[in-house]
Specification:
Blueprint (H helix, E strand, L loop, with lengths): L24 E2 L5 E3 L2 E3 L2 E2 L1 E2 L8 E2 L14
Antiparallel strand pairs: 1-4, 2-3, 5-6
Length: 70
């Protein structure tokens, strides 16, 4: 299991709604300390860099946890 720290609280009305949802993560990054916690991966979302409200990059249908993008 990996711990992921993501600064999404201000972009979501109810961040807790994301618990249990599948999304795309970048996992081949060095662990980094964020807000005093170790983060082992990075959440991939779409739109933030364009000034849009970010949306999760998520699979179209349920996939096995750990399935690779490519």
């Amino acid at each position: 299991m990996r711990t992921v720290v993501a600064g999404i609280k201000q972009e979501r009305h109810r961040p807790a709604d994301l618990v249990g949802r599948q999304a795309l993560f970048v996992v081949n990054v060095e662990p980094k300390e964020i807000h005093g916690e170790r983060s082992d991966a990075m959440l991939f979302d779409i739109g933030f860099e364009d000034g849009l409200r970010p949306a999760l990059a998520a699979p179209e249908w349920p996939m096995p946890d750990g399935a690779k993008a490519g």
